[in-house]
Design a protein that fits this description.
- By secondary structure, the chain is an all-alpha fold.
- It has 2 domains: 2-102, Hypothetical protein, domain 2 (Endonuclease III, domain 1, Orthogonal Bundle), CATH 1.10.340.30; 114-158, no CATH class.
- The protein contains 9 helices and no strands.
- The chain has helices at residues 2-6, 11-24, 31-44, 49-63, 77-85, 92-102, 114-124, 131-137, 145-158.
- Helix 3 runs antiparallel to helix 4 (49-63) and helix 7 packs across helix 9 (145-158).
- The protein is globular.
- The model has no long low-confidence stretch (mean pLDDT 97).
């Protein structure tokens, strides 16, 4: 749910909505509780129309065991990506963030993440023209691109503090 909420919004906005979701779920966000809340309740706590649809679809998939999130810890990166991106509203960025944050994979480069791309450009003082140039730039970070990504993110956020 956090990853769905973090798509294309500020972290503060996503956290605020997630906190309201957690409160609506009595502190325990589960697939069955999200399903019970339903579309209208999700909308009332701040989910957009799309994100409410995605959240309910993910809850339905978890309940119907079309996806078993816990079993993904033993899957390869490609298998995880396939399982995540097969869900409504979840793409490569969602899969990358899930592998980094939920699974603790050390060598993930979420190339579709705007803060990462902008953060690298700010650090280097140049704009990178395409994804392949960012991938090449990050090659020295292997096999710890997830760690480097977190460092770039932190620097990016620190530069924006008032």
């Amino acid at each position: 749910m956090r990853i769905i909420l973090e798509q294309q919004v500020s972290l503060a906005s996503a956290k605020s909505t997630f906190d309201r979701l957690a409160a609506a779920c009595d502190g325990s966000v589960t697939a069955s509780r999200v399903q019970e809340l339903g579309y209208d309740d999700l909308r009332s706590i701040g989910f957009s129309r799309q994100k409410a649809r995605y959240a309910i679809a993910l809850a339905d998939d978890v309940i119907a065991t079309r996806i078993r999130l816990r079993s993904l810890r033993h899957a390869t990166d490609d298998e995880v990506r396939q399982a995540i991106t097969a869900r409504l509203g979840l793409g490569d960025w969602s899969a990358d963030v899930f592998m980094m944050m939920a699974l603790g994979r050390p060598d993930i480069l979420p190339i579709g993440d705007l803060a990462l791309v902008k953060g690298i450009a700010e650090l280097d003082g140049i704009d990178y023209p395409d994804k392949s140039s960012i991938i090449r730039r990050a090659e020295p970070w292997q096999p710890y691109r997830s760690v480097a990504t977190r460092m770039v993110w932190q620097n990016y956020l620190d530069r924006r503090k008032p």
